[in-house]
Specification:
The chain is mostly helical. The chain has helices at residues 2-29, 34-39, 45-55, 61-74, 87-122, 126-141, 144-158, 174-208, 211-218, 223-260, 266-275, 279-307. It is globular. It starts with a helix and ends in an 11-residue tail after the last helix.
Length: 318
Amino acid sequence: MLSYLARRVPTAALTVLLTSVVVFLLIGLLPGSPASVILGDQADPAAVAALEQRMGLDRPMLQQYADWARGLVTGDLGTSYVSGAPIADTLGAAAGATVELALASLVVTVLTGAGFGIAGAMARRRVPQTLIRGASALIFGVPEYVLGILLILLFAISVRLLPAGGREPLLADPEIGIQYLAMPAIALGLHSGVVVGRFLETELRRQLEGEYLDTAHAKGVSARRVLWRHALPNALPPVVTVLGMRVGHLLGGAVVIEAVFAWPGLGQVLANAVVNHDYLIIQDLVVYFVVVFIAVQVAGDLIHAALDPRVRLEGEAS
């Protein structure tokens, strides 16, 4: 396992480095400078030049990149081009909300995936199979933001059971916080749960058709015991890998869902930065999202190997 991590760290570092270079170059190729965006199209060129100098945008591109990359590593992210507030404080205040939403949506993903996967694998008659697959296909075909709007129309406007948007920290007031958290977590996690459920159903069906399970049935072991004691543990390792990949999807979907529900997380910060042309925040968030995605992938591989000793991680002897 240590050798696997030793091999993955350089690859991950190279991926983050290339991502940072590409993001920095793409932002630099955008028309207009942040100074001209802040001051407006009719601003005096001398004022724009003075602001660019104050922001350090008049320096060579290589020096700008080096200073920015150094700040990413040290945590000194500079100040916002638009608000002038320290970016580290802005991201730190929003990170808690995003982590809360991501964990809640991950719970929804796991519960939904387990429900659809186990029910689909155990269904033997045509009608239950059709209903399960129809519901799965319907959820899969509805984008997260559309599902979010439908939830708002139903539970916030028609029934008036839940608030349409905003946030109350879950740790501050769990009873109120769960009301704000429920709809965005469901909208974000349900789609991924269906995807995980399909993989789990496939793996469970493959396990339930194994010869060793025929032996268990011949010994009089009940179908439920076979499922929970034999089939499910053997089906989990590849599903964990898929679940890790869906975490990246949850991070990407958070940008839209946080906008739909006015959830004050990193996705909302990124959306506002795009609207306001706050390029430095965009650069920082994109790179940090890539770092989190890579870390989750590595963790998924390690959990896969821990659940299934037959799997040998890259770099270990076969």
